[in-house]
Amino acid sequence: MDAWGTLLATVTGAAIAILGQYLTKRSEARAKSMELLMDACAQVAASSGDLLNRIWEEYALDLEGRVVQWDLAAHRLASARVEILARDAGLLAALREVDDAGQALGAYWRRGEVEEAAYRSRRDRYRAAMHEFLAQSSRVLGRQLNRA
To answer: In the chain, where do the E strands start and end?
Structure first.
């Protein structure tokens, strides 16, 4: 009878240890995923703000070549990371709007001749999209941080 009790205790202990390892690895993977998503969201937000500032510098300060030097590849990479890592429909919709509004503003800006009302409309759309993206990012990441 003692042998069976010892065996049962050993099996139970091993099962608890395996379950503990599984839960720890799962928690670590979730934390890493959240960290990557936070970094990608921050990169999209920073890159979007940088584009807006560069357009303003060319528009208001008559500096040339600022928009051309903007790192579009880094912005696209960060956007792709958000698309891969995020599962939230609101965050993904906000990202699409940032990208769409940025494309509209950038395409209009590259035409060369800028009308005040059209420029302001596109700029304001882009700015609003950036704010919504930040709000959605904060909501999603805040919810994930509360789970951790």
So the answer is: none
Provide the CB-side half-sphere exposure for 3 (13 A, CA).
Answer: 0
Is the CB of residue 78 less than 8 Å from the CB of residue 40? yes
Number of helices (H), then strands (E), in the chain: 4, 0
Tokens of 27: 């928690």
Q: What angle do CA 47, 52, 58 make, to 5 degrees?
A: 125
Quote the DSSP letter at residue 70: S
At 51-109, the pLDDT tens digits run: 999 999 999 999 999 999 999 999 999 999 999 999 999 999 999 999 999 999 999 99
- Mind listing the pLDDT tens digit for each residue in 43-62? 999 999 999 999 999 999 99
Spatial separation of the C-alpha atoms in residues 12 and 14, rounded to whole Å: 5
- Alpha carbon distance 62, 66 (integer Å): 10
The sign of the CA dihedral 105, 133, 135, 42 is: negative
DSSP conformation class of 63: -
Asked whether the whole model's pTM tops 0.90, one would answer no
Q: How many angstroms separate the CA atoms of 16 and 14, rounded?
A: 5
